[in-house]
Amino acid sequence: MQVTFLGTSSGVPTRARNVSAVALRLPQRAELWLFDCGEGTQHQFLRSDLRVSQLRRIFVTHMHGDHVFGLPGLLASLGLAGSCGGIDLYGPDPLRDYLEGVMRTSSTRIGYPLRTHRVKEAAARGTLVLDDDDITVRCTALTHRVPAYAYRVDQKPRPGRFDVERARALGIPPGPVYAELKAGRSVTLDDGRVIRGEALCGPPRPGCSVVYCTDTVFSEAAVALARGADLLIHESTFSHGEAELAIARQHSTSTMAAQTALEAGVKQLVLTHLSPRYVAGNPMTPDDLVAEARAIFPETLVAKDFLSLSVGTAG
Protein backbone atom coordinates (compact mmCIF):
# COMPACT_ATOMS: atom_id res chain seq x y z
CA MET A 1 0.00 0.00 0.00
CA GLN A 2 1.07 3.59 -0.57
CA VAL A 3 -0.21 6.43 1.62
CA THR A 4 -0.18 10.00 0.30
CA PHE A 5 -1.18 12.98 2.43
CA LEU A 6 -3.21 15.49 0.42
CA GLY A 7 -4.20 17.70 3.35
CA THR A 8 -2.67 17.94 6.83
CA SER A 9 -4.11 21.11 8.39
CA SER A 10 -6.99 21.32 10.84
CA GLY A 11 -9.94 23.67 10.49
CA VAL A 12 -8.68 25.91 7.71
CA PRO A 13 -5.99 25.62 5.02
CA THR A 14 -2.67 27.41 5.21
CA ARG A 15 -0.15 28.29 2.51
CA ALA A 16 1.65 25.00 3.11
CA ARG A 17 -1.15 22.70 4.25
CA ASN A 18 -4.58 21.98 2.85
CA VAL A 19 -7.38 20.56 5.01
CA SER A 20 -7.88 16.87 5.66
CA ALA A 21 -7.48 14.23 2.96
CA VAL A 22 -5.37 11.07 2.79
CA ALA A 23 -5.13 8.82 -0.27
CA LEU A 24 -4.40 5.10 -0.09
CA ARG A 25 -3.10 3.58 -3.32
CA LEU A 26 -3.45 -0.16 -3.90
CA PRO A 27 -1.02 -0.86 -6.76
CA GLN A 28 -1.87 -4.56 -6.99
CA ARG A 29 -5.41 -3.69 -8.06
CA ALA A 30 -4.89 -0.25 -9.63
CA GLU A 31 -7.27 1.35 -7.14
CA LEU A 32 -7.21 4.51 -5.08
CA TRP A 33 -9.11 5.00 -1.82
CA LEU A 34 -9.60 8.38 -0.15
CA PHE A 35 -10.02 9.15 3.55
CA ASP A 36 -11.79 12.47 4.11
CA CYS A 37 -12.15 15.13 1.45
CA GLY A 38 -11.64 18.67 2.67
CA GLU A 39 -12.14 21.70 0.45
CA GLY A 40 -9.65 21.77 -2.43
CA THR A 41 -8.84 18.07 -2.38
CA GLN A 42 -9.35 17.72 -6.13
CA HIS A 43 -6.76 20.47 -6.65
CA GLN A 44 -4.38 18.50 -4.44
CA PHE A 45 -4.89 15.49 -6.69
CA LEU A 46 -3.81 17.61 -9.65
CA ARG A 47 -0.61 18.58 -7.82
CA SER A 48 0.22 14.97 -6.98
CA ASP A 49 1.25 11.91 -8.97
CA LEU A 50 -2.03 10.16 -8.15
CA ARG A 51 -4.58 9.31 -10.83
CA VAL A 52 -8.03 10.37 -9.69
CA SER A 53 -9.47 8.11 -12.39
CA GLN A 54 -8.47 5.18 -10.14
CA LEU A 55 -10.59 6.44 -7.24
CA ARG A 56 -13.07 3.76 -6.13
CA ARG A 57 -13.88 4.27 -2.44
CA ILE A 58 -14.12 7.29 -0.12
CA PHE A 59 -14.24 6.99 3.68
CA VAL A 60 -15.45 10.00 5.69
CA THR A 61 -14.64 10.26 9.39
CA HIS A 62 -17.21 12.91 10.33
CA MET A 63 -19.26 15.75 8.93
CA HIS A 64 -17.21 18.80 9.90
CA GLY A 65 -16.53 21.01 6.89
CA ASP A 66 -12.76 20.65 6.82
CA HIS A 67 -13.35 16.92 6.16
CA VAL A 68 -16.25 17.00 3.66
CA PHE A 69 -16.48 20.35 1.85
CA GLY A 70 -14.37 19.08 -1.05
CA LEU A 71 -16.55 16.04 -1.66
CA PRO A 72 -19.33 17.52 -3.86
CA GLY A 73 -16.82 19.19 -6.19
CA LEU A 74 -14.71 16.07 -6.53
CA LEU A 75 -17.71 13.87 -7.26
CA ALA A 76 -19.06 16.36 -9.79
CA SER A 77 -15.69 16.53 -11.59
CA LEU A 78 -15.54 12.74 -11.77
CA GLY A 79 -18.93 12.83 -13.48
CA LEU A 80 -17.84 15.45 -16.00
CA ALA A 81 -14.72 13.41 -16.81
CA GLY A 82 -17.00 10.59 -17.95
CA SER A 83 -14.54 7.86 -17.00
CA CYS A 84 -15.70 6.93 -13.49
CA GLY A 85 -16.99 3.39 -13.08
CA GLY A 86 -18.61 4.09 -9.73
CA ILE A 87 -17.79 5.28 -6.22
CA ASP A 88 -18.62 3.73 -2.84
CA LEU A 89 -18.91 6.22 0.02
CA TYR A 90 -18.64 5.25 3.69
CA GLY A 91 -19.36 7.53 6.61
CA PRO A 92 -21.74 8.94 9.22
CA ASP A 93 -25.51 8.86 8.82
CA PRO A 94 -25.89 12.47 7.51
CA LEU A 95 -23.45 11.94 4.62
CA ARG A 96 -26.08 10.85 2.08
CA ASP A 97 -28.49 13.68 2.94
CA TYR A 98 -25.66 16.21 2.74
CA LEU A 99 -24.62 15.11 -0.73
CA GLU A 100 -28.15 14.78 -2.04
CA GLY A 101 -28.94 18.31 -0.82
CA VAL A 102 -25.87 19.83 -2.47
CA MET A 103 -26.39 17.95 -5.73
CA ARG A 104 -30.08 18.83 -5.89
CA THR A 105 -29.72 22.55 -5.11
CA SER A 106 -26.79 22.93 -7.51
CA SER A 107 -28.55 20.95 -10.28
CA THR A 108 -25.58 18.57 -10.41
CA ARG A 109 -26.07 15.18 -12.03
CA ILE A 110 -23.84 12.23 -11.31
CA GLY A 111 -23.66 9.93 -14.31
CA TYR A 112 -22.07 6.97 -12.54
CA PRO A 113 -23.13 4.64 -9.68
CA LEU A 114 -22.75 6.42 -6.34
CA ARG A 115 -23.37 4.08 -3.40
CA THR A 116 -23.47 5.35 0.20
CA HIS A 117 -22.82 3.07 3.18
CA ARG A 118 -23.53 4.09 6.77
CA VAL A 119 -20.87 2.87 9.22
CA LYS A 120 -22.57 3.57 12.55
CA GLU A 121 -23.92 0.05 12.99
CA ALA A 122 -20.64 -1.62 12.01
CA ALA A 123 -18.80 0.55 14.54
CA ALA A 124 -21.28 -0.30 17.29
CA ARG A 125 -21.30 -4.04 16.61
CA GLY A 126 -17.63 -4.43 15.76
CA THR A 127 -18.45 -5.91 12.35
CA LEU A 128 -16.58 -5.31 9.12
CA VAL A 129 -17.37 -2.27 6.98
CA LEU A 130 -15.87 -3.99 3.93
CA ASP A 131 -14.59 -7.47 3.13
CA ASP A 132 -13.40 -8.25 -0.37
CA ASP A 133 -10.91 -10.69 -1.89
CA ASP A 134 -7.80 -9.36 -0.17
CA ILE A 135 -8.72 -6.40 2.07
CA THR A 136 -10.95 -5.78 5.09
CA VAL A 137 -12.00 -2.46 6.61
CA ARG A 138 -13.18 -1.93 10.17
CA CYS A 139 -14.14 1.21 12.05
CA THR A 140 -14.79 2.42 15.56
CA ALA A 141 -16.53 5.42 17.09
CA LEU A 142 -14.26 8.17 18.41
CA THR A 143 -14.80 10.89 21.02
CA HIS A 144 -15.57 14.17 19.29
CA ARG A 145 -18.19 16.92 19.24
CA VAL A 146 -20.12 15.14 16.47
CA PRO A 147 -20.22 11.43 15.56
CA ALA A 148 -16.76 10.54 14.24
CA TYR A 149 -15.14 7.28 13.20
CA ALA A 150 -11.63 5.89 12.77
CA TYR A 151 -10.94 3.33 10.02
CA ARG A 152 -8.56 0.39 9.82
CA VAL A 153 -7.55 -1.19 6.50
CA ASP A 154 -6.07 -4.68 6.70
CA GLN A 155 -4.54 -6.62 3.85
CA LYS A 156 -5.34 -10.31 4.21
CA PRO A 157 -2.42 -12.76 4.57
CA ARG A 158 -0.74 -13.43 1.25
CA PRO A 159 0.62 -16.72 -0.09
CA GLY A 160 4.26 -17.47 0.66
CA ARG A 161 6.97 -16.71 -1.86
CA PHE A 162 6.86 -18.95 -4.93
CA ASP A 163 9.92 -21.18 -5.45
CA VAL A 164 10.61 -20.65 -9.17
CA GLU A 165 13.73 -22.82 -9.20
CA ARG A 166 11.89 -25.76 -7.71
CA ALA A 167 9.08 -25.36 -10.24
CA ARG A 168 11.62 -25.45 -13.08
CA ALA A 169 13.28 -28.51 -11.59
CA LEU A 170 9.90 -30.27 -11.68
CA GLY A 171 9.65 -29.46 -15.38
CA ILE A 172 6.72 -27.09 -14.98
CA PRO A 173 6.69 -24.77 -18.02
CA PRO A 174 6.69 -21.02 -17.28
CA GLY A 175 3.54 -19.10 -18.10
CA PRO A 176 0.08 -18.49 -16.61
CA VAL A 177 0.38 -21.74 -14.64
CA TYR A 178 2.97 -20.06 -12.42
CA ALA A 179 0.43 -17.44 -11.35
CA GLU A 180 -2.03 -20.18 -10.37
CA LEU A 181 0.60 -22.02 -8.38
CA LYS A 182 1.83 -18.81 -6.73
CA ALA A 183 -1.74 -18.20 -5.54
CA GLY A 184 -1.61 -21.59 -3.82
CA ARG A 185 -4.00 -23.35 -6.17
CA SER A 186 -3.60 -26.87 -7.60
CA VAL A 187 -2.91 -27.22 -11.32
CA THR A 188 -3.17 -30.21 -13.66
CA LEU A 189 -0.37 -30.20 -16.22
CA ASP A 190 -0.62 -31.47 -19.80
CA ASP A 191 1.20 -34.66 -18.79
CA GLY A 192 -1.47 -35.42 -16.18
CA ARG A 193 0.51 -34.48 -13.08
CA VAL A 194 -1.37 -32.55 -10.40
CA ILE A 195 0.84 -29.94 -8.75
CA ARG A 196 -0.24 -28.35 -5.48
CA GLY A 197 0.68 -24.68 -5.45
CA GLU A 198 1.00 -24.58 -1.67
CA ALA A 199 3.80 -27.14 -1.90
CA LEU A 200 5.84 -24.68 -3.98
CA CYS A 201 5.21 -21.68 -1.74
CA GLY A 202 6.77 -20.67 1.54
CA PRO A 203 4.80 -19.83 4.71
CA PRO A 204 1.94 -17.33 4.27
CA ARG A 205 3.04 -13.72 4.70
CA PRO A 206 1.01 -11.35 6.87
CA GLY A 207 -0.61 -8.44 5.10
CA CYS A 208 -0.03 -4.82 6.11
CA SER A 209 -2.41 -2.54 8.01
CA VAL A 210 -3.15 1.19 8.10
CA VAL A 211 -5.28 3.04 10.67
CA TYR A 212 -6.68 6.55 10.12
CA CYS A 213 -7.83 8.27 13.31
CA THR A 214 -9.25 11.80 13.37
CA ASP A 215 -10.93 13.82 15.02
CA THR A 216 -10.88 12.72 18.66
CA VAL A 217 -9.53 13.29 22.12
CA PHE A 218 -7.55 10.31 23.50
CA SER A 219 -9.69 7.22 22.98
CA GLU A 220 -9.34 3.66 24.25
CA ALA A 221 -11.45 2.60 21.26
CA ALA A 222 -8.76 4.00 18.95
CA VAL A 223 -6.11 2.05 20.84
CA ALA A 224 -8.08 -1.16 20.36
CA LEU A 225 -8.63 -0.50 16.65
CA ALA A 226 -4.95 0.29 16.04
CA ARG A 227 -3.57 -2.73 17.89
CA GLY A 228 -0.47 -4.02 16.08
CA ALA A 229 -0.97 -1.88 12.98
CA ASP A 230 1.92 -1.10 10.64
CA LEU A 231 0.95 2.56 10.37
CA LEU A 232 -1.21 4.77 12.57
CA ILE A 233 -2.21 8.14 11.12
CA HIS A 234 -3.47 10.18 14.08
CA GLU A 235 -4.58 13.74 14.50
CA SER A 236 -2.34 16.07 16.52
CA THR A 237 -4.25 19.32 16.52
CA PHE A 238 -2.54 20.73 19.61
CA SER A 239 0.75 20.63 21.49
CA HIS A 240 1.01 19.01 24.91
CA GLY A 241 1.00 22.44 26.54
CA GLU A 242 -2.53 23.05 25.28
CA ALA A 243 -4.03 19.82 26.63
CA GLU A 244 -6.87 21.66 28.37
CA LEU A 245 -7.90 23.29 25.09
CA ALA A 246 -7.63 19.95 23.30
CA ILE A 247 -9.90 18.27 25.84
CA ALA A 248 -12.41 21.11 25.69
CA ARG A 249 -12.57 20.89 21.89
CA GLN A 250 -12.27 17.08 21.88
CA HIS A 251 -9.10 16.97 19.83
CA SER A 252 -5.77 15.29 20.47
CA THR A 253 -2.38 16.62 21.46
CA SER A 254 0.90 15.27 20.15
CA THR A 255 1.34 13.27 23.36
CA MET A 256 -2.18 11.80 23.18
CA ALA A 257 -1.42 10.54 19.68
CA ALA A 258 1.89 9.09 20.87
CA GLN A 259 0.24 7.41 23.84
CA THR A 260 -2.29 5.82 21.49
CA ALA A 261 0.54 4.49 19.31
CA LEU A 262 2.47 3.20 22.32
CA GLU A 263 -0.49 1.40 23.91
CA ALA A 264 -1.56 -0.06 20.55
CA GLY A 265 1.92 -1.32 19.75
CA VAL A 266 1.97 0.07 16.21
CA LYS A 267 5.11 0.16 14.09
CA GLN A 268 4.93 3.80 13.01
CA LEU A 269 2.96 6.92 13.92
CA VAL A 270 2.33 9.87 11.61
CA LEU A 271 0.88 13.08 13.06
CA THR A 272 -1.56 15.07 10.94
CA HIS A 273 -4.44 17.59 11.31
CA LEU A 274 -2.13 20.23 12.81
CA SER A 275 -3.52 23.55 14.00
CA PRO A 276 -2.55 26.49 11.74
CA ARG A 277 -0.96 28.10 14.81
CA TYR A 278 2.06 25.79 14.45
CA VAL A 279 4.00 27.43 11.64
CA ALA A 280 7.58 28.63 11.28
CA GLY A 281 8.15 31.79 13.28
CA ASN A 282 5.61 30.97 15.98
CA PRO A 283 6.59 29.78 19.47
CA MET A 284 5.64 26.17 18.58
CA THR A 285 6.22 24.49 15.21
CA PRO A 286 5.51 21.03 13.77
CA ASP A 287 9.07 20.06 14.72
CA ASP A 288 8.19 20.73 18.36
CA LEU A 289 5.05 18.58 18.11
CA VAL A 290 6.95 15.62 16.68
CA ALA A 291 9.63 16.03 19.38
CA GLU A 292 6.94 15.84 22.06
CA ALA A 293 5.51 12.70 20.49
CA ARG A 294 8.92 11.03 20.06
CA ALA A 295 9.58 11.39 23.77
CA ILE A 296 6.83 8.79 24.20
CA PHE A 297 6.88 6.96 20.86
CA PRO A 298 10.17 7.34 18.96
CA GLU A 299 8.90 6.02 15.60
CA THR A 300 6.94 9.21 14.87
CA LEU A 301 6.82 11.44 11.81
CA VAL A 302 4.89 14.62 11.20
CA ALA A 303 2.96 14.67 7.92
CA LYS A 304 3.18 17.40 5.33
CA ASP A 305 1.15 17.75 2.15
CA PHE A 306 2.22 15.30 -0.58
CA LEU A 307 4.29 13.15 1.77
CA SER A 308 4.09 9.54 0.49
CA LEU A 309 4.85 6.44 2.53
CA SER A 310 5.00 2.81 1.46
CA VAL A 311 3.45 0.35 3.89
CA GLY A 312 4.34 -3.33 3.68
CA THR A 313 6.46 -5.04 1.05
CA ALA A 314 5.70 -5.85 -2.54
CA GLY A 315 5.63 -9.28 -4.12
Question: Which secondary structure elements does this structure contain, and how are they paired or packed?
Answer:
Elements: E1 2-7, E2 21-26, E3 31-35, H1 41-46, E4 55-59, H2 65-68, H3 71-81, E5 87-91, H4 95-105, E6 114-118, H5 120-125, E7 130-131, E8 135-141, E9 149-155, H6 164-169, H7 176-182, E10 186-188, E11 194-196, E12 209-213, H8 220-226, E13 231-235, H9 243-249, H10 254-264, E14 268-272, H11 286-294, E15 300-302, E16 308-310
Parallel strand pairs: 3-4, 4-5, 5-6, 12-13, 13-14, 14-15
Antiparallel strand pairs: 1-2, 1-16, 2-3, 7-8, 8-9, 9-12, 10-11
Percent strand: 15-25%
Please report the total strand number as a whole number: 16
Helix content: 25-40%
Spatial order of the strands forming the largest sheet: 6-5-4-3-2-1-16
Number of helices: 11
Unreliable spans are none
Mean pLDDT: 94
Characterize the largest beta sheet: strand count, sense, and whether it forms a barrel: 7 strands, mixed
Span of the ends, CA to CA = 12 Å
Order of helices and strands: EEEHEHHEHEHEEEHHEEEHEHHEHEE
Entry summary:
The chain is built from 11 helices and 16 strands. It has 315 residues and is α/β, with parallel strands linked by helices.
Description of the molecule:
- With 315 residues, the chain is α/β, with parallel strands linked by helices.
- It has eleven helices and 16 strands.
- The protein has helices at residues 41-46, 65-68, 71-81, 95-105, 120-125, 164-169, 176-182, 220-226, 243-249, 254-264, 286-294, and strands spanning 2-7, 21-26, 31-35, 55-59, 87-91, 114-118, 130-131, 135-141, 149-155, 186-188, 194-196, 209-213, 231-235, 268-272, 300-302, 308-310.
- A hairpin with a 7-residue loop joins strand 8 (135-141) and strand 9 (149-155).
- The protein is globular.
- The relative contact order is 0.14.
- The model has no long low-confidence stretch (mean pLDDT 94).
